[in-house]
Amino acid sequence: MASTTVNVVRYSALLGGVFYGIAHRRSLQKAHDAEVKQHAIHEREHLIAEAKEAWKKKQESGKDGVVTDPEDPRFDLEKLIAKWEADSQ
After folding, report:
1. CA torsion through residues 61, 65, 71, 77, sign
2. What is the pTM of this model?
3. Distance, CA of 68 to CA of 71 (rounded, Å)
4. 9-66: per-residue pLDDT in tens?
5. Distance (Å, rounded) from C-alpha 50 to C-alpha 56?
């Protein structure tokens, strides 16, 4: 049978370990949440940059009146080939 001193030390160590685990888990969770937030911000910035590039391309391609996107209903292959021939000369 264990003495009261041993039981006090045993349960004190158990409670200390539980509280340490809780505190450590909170710090890890806080770091993970900050990383997830930073990743979301970076991803949003990346998507905005891609959208800006696509918009710029769209604006530049609209200057000469030739639609280069084959999915566009206004796409005309003959006009595109004529534009390429004019650019190559």
Report:
1. negative
2. 0.54
3. 9
4. 999 999 999 999 999 999 999 999 999 999 999 999 999 999 999 888 877 765 677 7
5. 10
